[in-house]
Specification:
The complex is a heterodimer of chains A (207) and B (100).
Chain A (H helix, E strand, L loop, with lengths): L22 H5 L3 H11 L4 H17 L10 H19 L5 H4 L5 H4 L4 H9 L11 H9 L3 H12 L4 H8 L3 H26 L9
Helix pairs in contact in A: 2-3, 2-4, 3-4, 4-10, 9-11, 10-11
Chain B lengths: L8 H6 L1 H5 L5 H13 L3 H19 L5 H16 L19
Classes of the chains: A mainly alpha (207), B mainly alpha (100).
Chain lengths: 207, 100
Amino acid sequence: MAAASPSGIDGDTADGSTTKPGFTDEALPHLDAVYRFALRLAQGRADLAEDLVQDTFLQAYRAWDTFTRGTNARSWLFTICRNRFLRLEERRGRSGEVTEADSGADVEALASTAVFSEVRSADPERAFFDSFVDEEVMRALDALPTAFREAVTLSDVEGLSYPEMAEVLGVPTGTVKSRLFRGRRLLQQALYGYALEMGYIHPRERR
Amino acid sequence: MNDPHKVPCDRVLARLWEYLDGELPAEGEAEVRAHLDVCGHCFPQYDFERAYLTFIRRTAERPVPPGVRRRVFQMILAEESGRPPPEPGRGACGRETAES
């Protein structure tokens, strides 16, 4: 039996059983968003993403009393999901990748207009973004290091503001911007390289 | 601040992402917008980045598999009623509970 509406979950049941008031109204509506975020954290692996979603909502349900009703449940759920993911990564010996992304001098080497000017010269008809199918874009996004992948996903897919991202990632807004802007640049470079490889665009001769 | 080109292009480009993200304060936003309205150098880059944002938003919104929602509900109902939930970390992928 598929339960389309979990009437037994929050405190609105007829028998007045004490449960978790508000969980259905405030937390569950973000299930799709949490799944989308989990899928990118999991680099496209749907089974891992579903495990993350289950773990997130179970933990959120158990910890619901600690959540202040009416505040930003979506950011809270993303934080739980992300923390669970990082803990799993740690167990697999893959911790440290996130903070490594904040260092490195290569950020200055990524000229801000590099991708744009190359695409512009190779693609005067501006078909560049139209040439990709969704799977190609997701693969490029999923190939980014974790810090950049999660920043681009939270901002550009899920529409979080910088302060919301700072809350989820546990870093200052300046770090949010640094990771986000670099992440976008890396994704664009990856897509550009892929477009060249696939013949979607052709580089123009430089004079 | 009446002449948008009194604002140098690199100052505008440095804030382009924040402008597109709607994260600039009102004065900065007005300054960037005024510059983009008249600058043949900066507008194409703005146009490109805006196309990127529209594009990534569209491609990344995918439908969630319907089983995901159902299994989350089942798990919470199990938790609610004191039955043991599915094993953490295993999810309930493809498994139907015996009671359903």
